[in-house]
User: Fold GH18 domain-containing protein from Caenorhabditis briggsae.
Amino acid sequence: MATGENERVKEPMLPQRSPNAVRCCKIIAEFIVILIVCGILSLGLSVIIWTVYDNVVSPDVTNTTVEPLETTSITTTTMPTTTTKPLACQKRIIGFFNAFDAKEITAARVSKLTHAVFAKIPMDYNGELGIKTQETDEAFEKFKSTAKGVETDVKVMISICGKTSYREIAQKTEYTRIFVNSVASFLENHLIDGVDMNWERENYHNNINLLKELRIRLNGSQLISVTLPSPPNSGATFQVDEILKYADFVNVVSMGYYDTDRTRTGPISPLYSGFDGWKKLDVNATMKYFNKEVKISEKLNIVIPFFTRIWSNAIDVVEPGREMFRDAQNEFSQVPFSKMKEDGWTEHKTSWDKKSKSSYIYDSETKTFLTFENEESISWKLQFIREENLGGLWIRFMDMDDDENTLLNSVTKLC
Assistant:
């Protein structure tokens, strides 16, 4: 059928949306926008919360589940610093306090230390720790309150005195479990920062697993140190690098080199040369041995003894020009440095052995010989610590110093 000139061509009709449909689309679009905004805000808020948690909230190490040894990765760390107190020294100055001389534990002495160690907490045959006497308990409480009350950041530690050896504890799984749990509980209950394990007379290879178990139990939250003898003198064989996988530092018993021959005088802790077959029995030789065993010399500390060795009936010089080395007919005795002063020995002329860097007194009338640390011998050891980049020193024992803190004041010049 034909169309007229004025007749319009009809355009196709588009579907029309109802008002309800338009409203629904707007609501959906708004909902999607809200979801996107909320998601972005939630993500940002969660990042902020977890960042604050990681930096402020410390983990609850007491409830840490111990993983099996073969699947646990060990990382030796020091206890996190949670104090704003200033450090007494950048190097370690570790003072061991004798439990039987609690009266000598003073804030003036503790404040000069970086670590204060109470020696010693008793350990039973099965590895369980516990204070057995009122005297020890009172001494420990005084030590703890004094050490925690000083104005410097002092790490408070304990040393253990056992009825049995660590080797015996390490050989029995049950005793090992009792020991590590007992140590952890003791440190937690008394708010103690760490423990020292004295291995001066131990079979070291058998103790490595015990040390490893203790590190896992403490989980890096407390300090562990190990006290080891000087290998040239003791004949001991051990791998210090294995010990330092789990211990934070090692205290070396770099003294007593001539204790096996009590009929001959000699320095307590000579820095250098002895004589004849004893030429390598000194602090320098000991630390060279240890430095071959470890990669980080800062984890090693030498000892500064605060006591005096006295020989009676010391007579002929063993080697010409070495007045320090004499034959003696009686065994030596050991007295605190303070006792030496009380008895008037410091009023005598003090002699100096240049080769060993050691001080001594010889009374030719009474044939009495004394050897001890003083400001000069300590200054040489402090220089040695700096040159060898060692971690610092430890003191045996703090209570042996005099009332003026003569030796301690010399030691603090390390800082």
About this structure: Residues 1-17, 45-81 have pLDDT under 50 and may be disordered. The chain is about 35% helix and 20% strand. The longest strand covers residues 115-123. The domain at 87-306+373-414 is CATH 3.20.20.80 (TIM Barrel).
